[in-house]
Amino acid sequence: MKSQRAGERVKDSVTRFLTRKLKLVVNEQKSRVVKTNDAKFLGFNFRGTKLPWSDRAFGDFQHQVRKLTGRSWGVSMAYRFHKLAQYVRGWMGYFGISDYYRAIPEFDHWLRRRVRMCYWKQRRYARTKVKYLLSFGTSKRQTILTALSSKSYWHLSRTLATQIGMTNQWLQAQGLLSIRELWMKAHGYA
Asked: Quick check: 138 and 101 in contact, CB under 8 A?
């Protein structure tokens, strides 16, 4: 209770200074006095000397990437990669200063899987799926089993045949950015 009253006194003092001396308007609904570990500001949390992005900011990022890699979005893959690159570069340009690395490799894998799902959805019939994967040099048995499977596009985007066919290097050559590489570059590792 004492800390709450002390926080209110500090807030009143700062508000008085901002309104009287600096002639600024203070929005009371958005203003609060809290410890730095409880503060969220412009999409970041403050954890001691660490600066991770907030869960909401990362959730918004995932939602937007889901929209850009939706398998029913009827655009060319070149246009999809262009829009995805714009968004990912912008997000990493802002949130790349974050110290939080743990989610980056996992999210990079998730993004590649989403793109494989889009490529897989483009091939409508089993015979075109077989031709497509065989052109990459995957084994005939794995290709046929994957092409004839009735499982979802999302499930099939992680099979051995699609991962051997559409390798990470091939996806990068198509224009897919690596979130991990962008993060490493932002922190001076690459």
From this structure: no
pLDDT, one tens digit for every residue, the chain (190 residues): 666 677 678 778 888 888 888 888 888 787 777 777 777 778 787 777 778 888 888 899 999 999 999 988 889 999 999 999 999 999 988 888 888 888 889 999 999 999 999 998 888 899 999 998 999 888 999 999 999 888 888 998 898 898 888 999 999 999 999 999 998 888 888 6
Are the CB atoms for 58 and 100 separated by under 8 Å? no
Nearest Cα residue to 53 out of 3, 88, 103, 121: 103
Question: For the whole model, what pTM was predicted?
Answer: 0.79
129 Cβ contact partners less than 8 Å away, ≥ 6 residues apart = 120, 123, 143, 146, 147
Angle of helix 126-135 versus helix 140-148 axis, rounded to 10? 150
Tally Cβ neighbours within 10 Å of residue 151.
9
* Distance between CA atoms of residues 121 and 115, nearest Å: 10
Report residue 149 as tokens. Answer: 């499977």
Where exactly are the structural domains of the chain? Answer: 55-186
